[in-house]
From TrEMBL:
GO biological process, one term: phospholipid biosynthetic process
InterPro entries assigned: FIT, FITM1/2
GO molecular function (one): coenzyme A diphosphatase activity
Topology with respect to the bilayer: Multi-pass membrane protein
Classification via Pfam families: FIT
Keyword Transmembrane helix carried by entry: yes
Gene giving rise to this polypeptide: EOG090X07YX
Protein name: EOG090X07YX
Protein origin, superkingdom: Eukaryota
Alphabetic keyword roster: Endoplasmic reticulum, Hydrolase, Lipid metabolism, Membrane, Transmembrane, Transmembrane helix
Length: 413
C-alpha cells in the first residue's frame, strides 16, 4: 500500500528531446544609461535635421518674403538681436561658415571613413562636397561686395576712385546701393548644407546590427539572412567594426553640434529678416542660396557629374539617402485610424495598434481595420494585401518591409 502511494506522488522523469535545437542568432549587447540618454538627445536632433529639405526651402522663401514685408510695415521694437554687436552676430553669424565647416567637416570625415572602409580616394570625394560649397560661398560673397561697391553712390559727391565706398564711410557719410544680404544667403546656405550632410546618420545605428549578423553568418555553418556587409572582405569588415566603435561617439557629438548650429542659424535668420536689409535684398539672396543648394545636391552630386557622391554612399549601402528616417515607419503610421492612439518611445510604437470591431472606431465590422487608401507604398505593396492580417502578424510583416527598405532592398512586382 505504501509503495503504491509513493508511486502516485512521484511522476516518472520526462525524457528530454535530444533533437531539439536552440537558436544561435546573436543578440545585441546591453545598453548603458549614458548611451540611452545620448541616443535620446540624438533623436531630438533628428527632429531638427531630418526635415524634408524641399519643405524647408519653401518655408525659407515664404518666410523671407512675407516676414520682410511685415518687418518693413509693422513698427517692430528694437531688441538685443537688432544690435549688430550682439554676441551671436559677432562670434557666430560673422564666422558662420567656419563654424559650419568645422562640425560638418568632422562629421563627413568620420562617417565616410566608416562606410568607405578607409578608402582615401572615396573619403576625398566626400570631402570635395564641402570644398565645392566653400568655393561657392567665397565666390558669391565676393560678388555681393563687388555689386555693392560698383553700383552705389555716396550721400554727398566725393572724388570717384576704387575705394570710393571706404572713403565715403570714413568721412561719416552713407553709401547707398543695392546691398544683397550676405547674412540671409549664408545662413540659409549653411542650414541646407547641414541638413543634406546629416543624412549620413540615417540608419547609422543599424550598422551595429549588420556587423553582429555578418559575424554570425561568416562564423556559422548555417546561412543566415544577407546583410549589406556581405560584399566586404575580412580586412574591410574588421576595419569597419573597429572604426564604427571608435568613431560613433564623436559622430553623435558632431551631429548634435550640427543640430544646434542649424537651430541657431534659423533664429539669426529671423533676426535678419526683421531688422536688417530691405525686402528685395533679402529675397534675392535667399533665392540665390536655394538655387545653389538645388544645383549642387539635386543636380550636380545626384547625377555624379563631377564624380562626387551623395552623403552615405560608399563601399556598402547601409541606408537609402533619398529616404528620410521618418518614412521608415510611414506605412505603419498610415494603418492607424485617426481616432486611435498608440504609445510610442523615440518615434517607435511600443505596442501594435488595437483593432476595434465597431464601425465607429474605423473598423469594417469583422475585426479588420479600415485603411485610409489603396495606394501603393514605397515597397510596392498595396494596403489591401495586409488588411486581413492579425495585429501581431501585421506588425511583423510591416517590420520586415521596414528592414528591407532600410537595407535598400525593394521588392518589385
Amino acid at each position: 500500500m505504501v509503495k503504491s502511494i509513493s508511486a502516485l506522488n512521484f511522476r516518472p522523469p520526462v525524457e528530454s528531446k535530444t533533437g531539439e535545437r536552440k537558436g544561435t542568432k546573436p543578440l545585441p549587447e546591453p545598453t548603458s544609461i549614458q548611451q540611452v540618454l545620448l541616443l535620446m538627445v540624438v533623436h531630438l536632433c533628428r527632429k531638427i535635421l531630418f526635415i524634408d529639405p524641399n519643405i524647408k526651402v519653401g518655408i525659407y522663401i515664404m518666410l523671407v518674403f512675407f516676414g520682410s514685408i511685415l518687418g518693413d510695415v509693422l513698427p517692430i521694437p528694437n531688441s538685443y538681436f537688432s544690435r549688430k554687436d550682439n554676441i551671436f552676430n559677432v562670434y557666430f553669424v560673422k564666422l558662420s561658415w567656419g563654424w559650419t565647416m568645422i562640425f560638418v567637416g568632422s562629421f563627413v570625415y568620420l562617417t565616410s571613413s566608416v562606410y568607405s572602409c578607409g578608402d582615401k580616394t572615396k573619403i576625398r570625394k566626400h570631402m570635395l562636397r564641402l570644398l565645392f560649397a566653400t568655393f561657392m560661398w567665397f565666390f558669391w560673397t565676393k560678388l555681393f561686395v563687388t555689386i555693392e561697391e560698383s553700383y552705389g553712390y555716396c550721400s554727398k559727391p566725393i572724388v570717384r576712385s576704387s575705394n570710393s565706398r571706404k572713403q565715403c564711410l570714413s568721412k561719416g557719410l552713407s553709401w547707398n546701393s543695392f546691398s544683397l544680404s550676405g547674412h540671409t544667403f549664408i545662413l540659409i546656405y549653411c542650414a541646407l548644407i547641414i541638413m543634406e550632410e546629416a543624412k549620413a546618420l540615417v540608419s547609422w545605428e543599424a550598422i551595429k546590427d549588420h556587423l553582429r549578423n555578418e559575424d554570425h553568418n561568416r562564423s556559422s555553418e548555417e546561412s543566415g539572412s544577407a546583410t549589406p556587409l556581405d560584399c566586404l572582405s575580412a580586412e574591410q569588415l574588421l576595419f569597419v567594426r573597429d572604426k564604427y566603435e571608435k568613431f560613433t561617439p564623436f559622430i553623435r557629438l558632431s551631429f548634435i553640434a550640427m543640430a544646434v548650429l542649424a537651430l541657431l542659424w534659423d533664429i539669426m535668420l529671423m533676426a535678419t529678416i526683421i531688422y536688417f536689409h530691405s525686402t528685395p535684398e533679402k529675397f534675392v539672396a535667399s533665392v540665390i542660396a536655394v538655387l545653389l543648394w538645388f544645383f549642387s545636391y539635386r543636380f550636380l552630386f545626384s547625377r555624379r557629374l563631377l564624380g562626387i557622391p551623395l552623403p552615405g554612399e560608399g563601399s556598402f549601402r547601409y541606408m537609402n539617402p533619398a529616404q528620410p528616417l521618418q518614412m521608415l515607419y510611414a506605412r505603419r503610421a498610415s494603418l492607424i485610424t485617426k481616432t486611435e492612439k498608440t504609445s510610442s518611445f523615440m518615434g517607435m510604437p511600443l505596442s501594435p495598434p488595437k483593432v476595434g470591431v465597431d464601425d465607429h472606431t474605423g473598423g469594417t465590422g469583422n475585426g479588420t481595420p479600415k485603411f485610409k487608401s489603396k495606394a501603393v507604398e514605397p515597397d510596392l505593396v498595396h494596403n489591401d494585401m495586409i488588411r486581413n492580417l492579425s495585429p501581431k502578424n501585421k506588425t511583423n510583416f510591416l517590420h520586415l518591409f521596414d528592414v528591407l527598405l532600410n537595407n535598400n532592398h525593394v521588392l518589385t512586382l
